Amino acid sequence: MRKAHFYSKALDKHFEVERIIGEFHGDEEGPVLVFFGGIHGNECSGVVALIEVMEEIKRLKPKIKGSIYAITGNMNSLEKKQRFETEDLNRIWTKDRVRKLEKGTYQEDELNPDEKEQLELFRIGKKIFEKHAHQVYCIDLHTTSGPTMPFITLNDTLINRDFATKFPVPVIIGIEEFLVGPLLSWVMEIGYPSLAFEAGEHYSADSIKYHKAFVWLSLIHGGLIDESEAPAFG
């Protein structure tokens, strides 16, 4: 199993992570939440938060309705502490390139490092989407280069807006019009609701805290766990 080793400046701690950070399946069928962290390799806050939340779920054993997946994004760049190596992994999910992935019309030995990361994520995503008949929600965890308050960005659809407004943070609409080929554009093309959560500055411990809280709130608002079974956070 492929692993990446990375350093969190915010916590002054080294971590080891696999592509699938964790997955949990309840006894009952229900909604499916898919979390992505570290799509940009210099944004490890979301990965740390997902590692810690997956460990908390394992320890607390809440009753889960549906399924939870936590996925590492750009493992290569995460290890190298850089946003990307050749191409921004969050800008190459264009219709033409996804069509190429769908058809398999590529030579793997000719792919650049970021395209190889994309191919792995594409294959994992396809398996998840094909496995589940219930609604799948995708959440992409990010941070920013400077201090900011946490906020949500999304493609402005009714189902996205309905889910996003459950959270006590600002929602920014329209950013997607200026971005070419983000990961969530592929998810939206398939027809699944999705949103991105910006937790704050890259190397702030608060960003990890906000990411963890957002993941737990997503599980609660998504109907996967009862609020009484989540840990206290503030």
Structure report:
Helices cover 35% and strands 26% of the residues. It is an alpha/beta fold. Helix 5 links the parallel strand 7 (151-154) and strand 8 (171-173). The protein is globular. It starts with a strand and ends in a 13-residue tail after the last helix.
**What would the principal axes of the Cα set say about the shape?**
globular
How many strand units?
9
Strand order of the largest sheet: 3-5-4-6-9-7-8
The sequence of SSEs as H and E is: EEEEHEHHHEEHEHEH
Distance between the termini: 35 Å
Unreliable stretches: none
From the structure above, extract its key features.
single chain; 234 residues; alpha/beta; seven-stranded mixed sheet; two-stranded antiparallel ribbon; 35% helix; globular
Topology:
Layout: E1 3-8, E2 13-18, E3 20-25, E4 28-37, H1 45-60, E5 65-72, H2 75-80, H3 95-103, H4 113-131, E6 136-144, E7 151-154, H5 158-164, E8 171-173, H6 183-190, E9 194-201, H7 205-221
Parallel strand pairs: 4-5, 4-6, 6-9, 7-8
Antiparallel strand pairs: 1-2, 3-5, 7-9
Helix pairs in contact: 1-7
